[in-house]
């Protein structure tokens, strides 16, 4: 039996708890921490999982999933370091934070696996990238991949690619939401009621995503299949290129990568 503690039961932490339970993990093998008593009580009632403090989680758990906001990591590590059991696995879901931070602040030899998930975890369709720290082996990665496989897909990447992954898939859902929002506004501009415009665009997005996911054709091929000579689509593509949408996306993702690097540097040893 492997006991798992989720430290920080916000949206991502709750989504992981839900996914683990739906994947067959017994409730008595799970605990969580939550600083707001009302939310803790609500989660316990909803999932049948016990809410505990950090010290109790460290005493009970074989795997501790850190799902707090990056700015809250320092006090959590201060609390965790004196009570962490030898051999306990730390799984970090915190954007930008390197495994070296945990290895430096926690007992020597603590295995750490860094994860970059994304919010589709809330509907069981996450894309999570995992990387091993200095003291984590293939068995640790296997375990983390099994756990996260209950809420989506998992890829293994070198840790030096995690900032880029954060920019691509970690922040990626926001780019799609932004695009859908703009397209709905365009529908309203063209005289279509908001509710209908939303239905048209969201279903188009769902269908396009399924075509990308289920087929083996490059996105360029799929786009060209919609783009008839002198038709409506090529006129739209010309405007997108004229306004630099492709360049803007490249710059946006690069900026997200740079911010991820900054978050990690803020916690480097002096």
Automatic annotation (TrEMBL):
<feature type="domain" description="Pyrroline-5-carboxylate reductase catalytic N-terminal">
    <location>
        <begin position="3"/>
        <end position="96"/>
    </location>
</feature>
<comment type="pathway">
    <text>Amino-acid biosynthesis; L-proline biosynthesis; L-proline from L-glutamate 5-semialdehyde: step 1/1.</text>
</comment>
<dbReference type="InterPro" id="IPR053790">
    <property type="entry name" value="P5CR-like_CS"/>
</dbReference>
<dbReference type="GO" id="GO:0005737">
    <property type="term" value="C:cytoplasm"/>
</dbReference>
<feature type="binding site">
    <location>
        <begin position="67"/>
        <end position="70"/>
    </location>
    <ligand>
        <name>NADP(+)</name>
    </ligand>
</feature>
<dbReference type="Pfam" id="PF03807">
    <property type="entry name" value="F420_oxidored"/>
</dbReference>
<dbReference type="InterPro" id="IPR033379">
    <property type="entry name" value="Acid_Pase_AS"/>
</dbReference>
<comment type="similarity">
    <text>Belongs to the pyrroline-5-carboxylate reductase family.</text>
</comment>
<keyword id="KW-0028">Amino-acid biosynthesis</keyword>
<dbReference type="InterPro" id="IPR029036">
    <property type="entry name" value="P5CR_dimer"/>
</dbReference>
<keyword id="KW-0963">Cytoplasm</keyword>
<dbReference type="InterPro" id="IPR028939">
    <property type="entry name" value="P5C_Rdtase_cat_N"/>
</dbReference>
<dbReference type="GO" id="GO:0004735">
    <property type="term" value="F:pyrroline-5-carboxylate reductase activity"/>
</dbReference>
<protein>
    <recommendedName>
        <fullName>Pyrroline-5-carboxylate reductase</fullName>
        <ecNumber>1.5.1.2</ecNumber>
    </recommendedName>
</protein>
<keyword id="KW-0521">NADP</keyword>
<comment type="function">
    <text>Catalyzes the reduction of 1-pyrroline-5-carboxylate (PCA) to L-proline.</text>
</comment>
<dbReference type="InterPro" id="IPR036291">
    <property type="entry name" value="NAD(P)-bd_dom_sf"/>
</dbReference>
<feature type="domain" description="Pyrroline-5-carboxylate reductase dimerisation">
    <location>
        <begin position="159"/>
        <end position="263"/>
    </location>
</feature>
<dbReference type="GO" id="GO:0055129">
    <property type="term" value="P:L-proline biosynthetic process"/>
</dbReference>
<keyword id="KW-0560">Oxidoreductase</keyword>
<keyword id="KW-0641">Proline biosynthesis</keyword>
<dbReference type="Pfam" id="PF14748">
    <property type="entry name" value="P5CR_dimer"/>
</dbReference>
<dbReference type="InterPro" id="IPR008927">
    <property type="entry name" value="6-PGluconate_DH-like_C_sf"/>
</dbReference>
<dbReference type="InterPro" id="IPR000304">
    <property type="entry name" value="Pyrroline-COOH_reductase"/>
</dbReference>
């Amino acid at each position: 039996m492997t006991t798992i503690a989720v430290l920080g039961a916000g949206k991502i932490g709750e989504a992981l708890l839900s996914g683990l339970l739906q994947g067959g993990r017994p409730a008595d093998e799970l605990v969580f921490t939550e600083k707001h008593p009302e939310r803790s009580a609500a989660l316990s009632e909803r999932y049948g999982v016990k809410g505990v403090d950090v010290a109790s989680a460290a005493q009970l758990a074989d795997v501790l999933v850190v799902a707090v906001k990056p700015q809250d990591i320092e006090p959590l590590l201060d609390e965790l370091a004196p009570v962490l059991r030898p051999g306990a696995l730390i799984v970090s879901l915190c954007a930008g934070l390197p495994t070296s931070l945990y290895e430096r602040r926690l007992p020597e030899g603590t295995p750490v696996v860094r994860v970059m998930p994304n919010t589709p975890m809330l509907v069981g369709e996450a894309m999570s990238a995992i990387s091993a720290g200095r003291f984590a082996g293939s068995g640790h990665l296997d375990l983390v991949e099994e756990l996260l496989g209950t809420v989506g897909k998992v890829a293994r990447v070198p840790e030096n690619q995690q900032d880029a992954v954060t920019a691509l898939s970690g922040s990626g859902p926001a780019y799609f939401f932004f695009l859908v929002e703009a397209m709905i506004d365009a529908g309203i501009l063209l005289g279509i009621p908001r509710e209908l415009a939303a239905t048209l665009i969201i279903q188009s997005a769902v269908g396009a995503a399924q075509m990308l996911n289920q087929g083996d054709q490059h996105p360029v091929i799929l786009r060209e299949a919609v783009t008839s000579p002198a038709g409506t689509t090529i006129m739209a593509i010309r405007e997108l290129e004229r306004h630099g949408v492709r360049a803007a996306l490249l710059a946006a993702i690069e900026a997200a990568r740079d911010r991820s690097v900054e978050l990690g540097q803020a916690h480097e040893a002096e």
